[in-house]
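WARN retry 2 of 3 for item q-0093 after timeout on previous attempt; input resubmitted unchanged.
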Amino acid sequence: MGNKLVFSDNAPAAIGPYAHAVEANGVLYVSGQIPADPKTGEFPEGIKAQTKQSLANVDAILKEAGYTKFDVVRAGIFVKDMNEFAQINEVYAEYFESHTPARATVEVARLPKDAGVEIDVIAVKAKQ
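OK item q-0093 returned
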C-alpha cells in the first residue's frame, strides 16, 4: 500500500516542501498547522483565535482526507508562551468536545511566521 499525499485548498499553503498530510497504512499524519487564514495568510489576534484557526486548518485537512476530529488519536501542540496554555486548552476542549486524544504540549522558542501556536495530529479511521 503506497503513501497518499493530502493537500487542501481550505488550509493555508505549506510554507515549505511538505504535504498538508500523508496517509500511510491507514494512518493520517497531519503536518503542523499555524493559525494562518487560508484565504489571506493573516493571523487572527489573540491566542484563543489563533488556536481556533490552527484547529480549523487541521479540520480542513482531515476532511480533505476523509477523516473527522473523532478519528484523531494524538495531537501535538507547540506554544510560544506556556502562560497561555489555559486559553489554548479551552479552545482545544471545545473543538474536540468529549473526544480526548493523547496529546503532548511543549513550549518552543519560536514558531514559523512568529505564530503563537502550531498544532499537528495523527488520525486513524474509527472502526464502523
